[in-house]
Amino acid sequence: MTGKCVPAVEQVDSSYLEDLIGYNARRAALSVIEVFLDRMQVYNLRPVDFSVLSLITHNPGITSRQLCSTLGILPPNLVGMVNALEKRELIMRQPHPRDGRAMGLHLTTPGQKLMRDAERTAAELEAEVAGRLTPTESRTLIRLLKKIYQ
Amino acid sequence: MTGKCVPAVEQVDSSYLEDLIGYNARRAALSVIEVFLDRMQVYNLRPVDFSVLSLITHNPGITSRQLCSTLGILPPNLVGMVNALEKRELIMRQPHPRDGRAMGLHLTTPGQKLMRDAERTAAELEAEVAGRLTPTESRTLIRLLKKIYQ
DNA sequence: TATTGTTATACTCTATAACTATA
DNA sequence: TATAGTTATAGAGTATAACAATA
């Protein structure tokens, strides 16, 4: 047996995977989320917590059901997150005005304060990420990504 | 208390999240992976199995360590995958020509046959996804995503 | 009958520590 | 001493079934 039969791989060729849109989208998402995880540690928020609080911020009175369908979370998996955020006194439940089954979610005053800071941090991170692109490229990227999943 | 105090949310406003590159990249990636999961069921391959087999296909003799660093998988989590693929007789281990600690991974003949079909299916899916964009947009999207994570 | 919110639970994915054999 | 591969295990994330209360 010669070395030619079982040659070692010096440099890995991943060009096949790198030509796939899904592969690149996943790598880009993971790259951003990695930094996001780090920056949000001071607020003790995971990306999903930030998404939930952000939707409550911009949609006061939103229900758990609406959060689930917007973020693609299953209801049983949201219960613990909402409970934890309520226990931290960042959000509070109020009866839904027209549906006795549902509860509207609202930020508390400390929750509003936290989210003002957290959204500023998120905006700074977004500026850094978008900074790798020109403003036009940045808008193009978001537009094309929306065309993929919408 | 009037209805104005606790108004119900009729239409959820997710425009804040939709302006974030990371959020859009994640949604796009999940959208593609969802279809990928479905199409690869006939081959009994998850996305990560396809990635592993594809890298072995284009890099015969690649080691576990190289697979891990290329795909961002931790070594303990790769062991089970490689064992399963070997048990299915899709891949085989061969001694590394120059490093007695490592094993080079190679496709078996059935593995080569499976991957010819699986990569054709993946190419079809890629064509469908890219079909939502013009060819120029498709190339632009991949180029911009690479600028984000590279 | 359908929907909201919930509990319990199982399964998958990811992460860490520690070991062996070899470099 | 460092690295490749492995084992065991813990934690996080995601999934389904079933229930009470309300529509």
Keywords:
homodimer, mainly alpha, Arc Repressor Mutant, subunit A, two-stranded antiparallel ribbon, 7 helices, 2 strands, elongated
Structure description:
2 copies of one chain form a homodimer. Chain A has a single domain, classed as Winged helix-like DNA-binding domain superfamily/Winged helix DNA-binding domain (Arc Repressor Mutant, subunit A). A two-stranded antiparallel ribbon of chain A has the order 1-2. Chain A contains 7 helices and 2 strands. Chain A has 150 residues and is mainly α. The longest helix of chain A has 22 residues. Helix content of chain A is 62%, strand content 7%. Chain A is elongated and about 65 Å long. Chain A binds a DNA duplex (23 and 23 nucleotides) through helix 5.
Helix/strand layout:
The structure is a homodimer of 150-residue chains.
Chain A: H1 15-18, H2 21-39, H3 47-58, H4 64-71, H5 75-87, E1 91-95, E2 103-107, H6 109-130, H7 135-149
Helix pairs in contact in A: 2-6, 3-6, 4-5
Chain A binds a DNA duplex (23 and 23 nucleotides) through helix 5.
